[in-house]
Structures are given as structure tokens and as C-alpha cells.
Amino acid sequence: RASMFFSGLNGFNYTCHPCWDQPRSLTTWRSYNYPHVTVVYWALYRLARQYGGDSGGGGDAVHHDKSGGIHIGLPGLKDWAWYLGQAANTTLLGVATHGTYNQFGLMVESIWATLLDDLAHEASLDPAGPWATYAKGIDAFARPRAVAWSELPFPFGSEMPWDSTGQEGCYVWTSRYNLTATATATLRAVLAYSPRVANWAYRGNARRYFDFGSWSGALCRGTEREFHHYGAPLNAIVTLTAYRVDPDNHHLLEVGVAGITGTLTNIRGTGVASMAWHGSPANMVHDPYDFDFGIGFYGHGTHSGAFLVNRSVNGDFACYMCNAVVVGSEVRLTPLDSFGRRVYLGPVGLELIAHGGRFAEVVYNPAARAAVATV
Fold first, then answer.
1. How many CB atoms lie within 10 A of CB 51?
2. Are 344 and 309 in contact (CB under 8 A)?
3. pTM of the predicted model as reported, rounded to 2 decimal places
4. Which of 10, 27, 33, 280 has the greatest number of CB atoms lying within 10 Å of its CB?
């Protein structure tokens, strides 16, 4: 359904624009809504896969391991297979919707590619299970659409012609299916409106104006730049994915890191999120509406990490979202990002991912081209 909330109850003054009544909130045609739900089910699948659950849906909130350790889980956590099936079915329903938006890249659509990888992994462990069938259904939608994009000069459209939300899905799928020319064109489009200038508001900030004009009411005076609206961290998925393929391109890294961290500046001191910062000198405040902040946080949550790079021929190292100290022949890295679950070692093109816990330290030996991680 389009929304859990709707207007029209007696005694409430609804001043938002536009207001959806109950019939509108129950519609299911808008393709953009489906990846958001897939993310929720997929995240719960990962939690249940790592921390356990039971097929009856009554998983304990606290789990004890054999060594006496305690793991805090979710109350009522279901079996992981239930969540994975829900994620797959939601995706398949989303790709089967009859609206016209499926021709475009969808916001948060990269989760479908991640889900496809997880389905393939589970299918390899359980060939008799439903996972291979689910994966085949998603691939049957994604592959021909990516091929169709490869035949267009500008394939990254959206429901709004001035949007910058179609690039994420376009890049993820065309690069996955080795449609290199289209993937490269999409990356160049993202870099064209995602600057590297040394300013927190502009660095990594995807060009965005639309939502203030439509939703902010009296606060917006004409065309106003939105700083670190959700388009920035979603487009950072493109630049950081490209960087991991080309780890000597530090421009991609710096634009991407700025994109996924800038969204955090839209969390007020009270903990309440804002859709973006008003860039007009007459305003210079957080917008009062949170409006899609969660979509941007998806980009932060899935691609935040620590990045170690070699900045010179002399072997000097720089660390993004981490501290790095050279001790003898080793580089000792301490992650400082939000989660501590991803570490990318640029000199060897190696990414470490912790599905449970977080990295306390990673020790990298350049001469041996080896790393030891402590979780």
C-alpha cells in the first residue's frame, strides 16, 4: 500500500499538501514504494540469519551461546527464511506492477541486486528450496530492462524530469550485466552534479531543488538548493561502487564519502531528522519535514565504512572514516564510521564485511599484502 497513514478523520486539521485519503493510501500501483519495503524485510532477514530466530515467530530477545556470551536479538524474531521470502515476494510484486515507473531506475533499487546475491547464496546452500526460483524471477525482470537502458542515450529518467534518482538503479544493473558503456555514462552523469569542492554543503551533494518547492510551503522562496537531500547518499552508492572497482580514483572516493556522511548533518540535535538543509541565505535552517530522510539513510547504512588509501609513491596512507597509525611495517586501522562493519583496503582492492559485530581493528601489512581483522 502507498501509506500507513491518511487524512480525512473528523477533528483533525490537515494542512499538508497534498493530503491522501484512505482509498489513496491503499493504492499499490507506484513502483517506487516497493524497494522500501524490501529493505525492511531484507534487514530482518540478515538479523535473523546472524542472530537466529524460530519458525514459529516467537524468537527470544536474548540468546546465550556455549561460551556464556549473550547476544541481544529482536523480540519475536521469525525464522530468517520467512523474511527472505517476504523480501523476494515484495520485489516480484513490485516488478510486476502495471504503472509506468518500472521503466526508470527506482530509489533504493540497489537493494534488489543485494537481495539477488543473497538468494543465489541461499540457493547454493539449499538447492531444493525456493531461492533459485525467486532469483530467476528477479533476474528475468532486471536483465532485459538493463539491456533496454543500454540502448538509450539518457536512460536514467524518473517520475520527475528534473530528478536525480534513477541513476542508482541504472548503474547497479548495467554494471552487473557488464553493459559498461551505459554504466560509465551513468557514473559521469552523477559526477557532473556531485561536486568535490571543499564545502560541507556542496561536496558530494547531488543537485536537488524539487522537494522544497513542493512540500516546504512558506519556507521555500522560489528555487532553492537542497543540501544533502536523499539524492546525495543514493548517488553516492554509484560513486563508491565505482571506486571499489577503481581504487586509485580518489576523486570517486571523496565524492562518495561526502555523499553518505552529509546526510547525517540533517539529523537535528534532538534526534529528529530533516529532509534537507535550506540553502537560501534567507533561510539556512533544517526543513521542518523529515520527508524521505530514511531513503537517504539507506545509502548511508549500506555503504558507510572505513577506507584506507595510499596517497603517494612514498607509501603515505590516508584513512577515511577511520584512524590509521603506522607501526613498524604495519598499518593499524580503527574504524570510526557509524557501524564499523565495512573496511576497504584500497592498496589491495580488498573489502572486509562483518555481518555480525563490528571491526575493532584491522592490521594491514603492505609488504606481505595481508590483513588481520579483530571483530
1. 17
2. no
3. 0.90
4. 33
Flag the least confident range among 45-59, 91-105, 280-294, 326-340: 45-59
Instruction: Give 131's pLDDT tier (boundaries 50, 70, 90).
Output: very high
Q: Report the chain's mean pLDDT, rounded to a whole number.
A: 88
* Cα separations in angstroms, 274 against 18, 226, 262, 264, 301: 19, 11, 12, 10, 17
What pairs with residue 286 in β-bridges?
A: 277
**Residue 371 above 50 pLDDT?**
yes
Instruction: Please give the backbone phi and psi of residue 45, each rounded to the nearest 5 degrees, phi first.
Output: -60, -45
What's the longest Cα–Cα distance across the chain?
71
Which amino acid is residue 180, in one-letter code? T
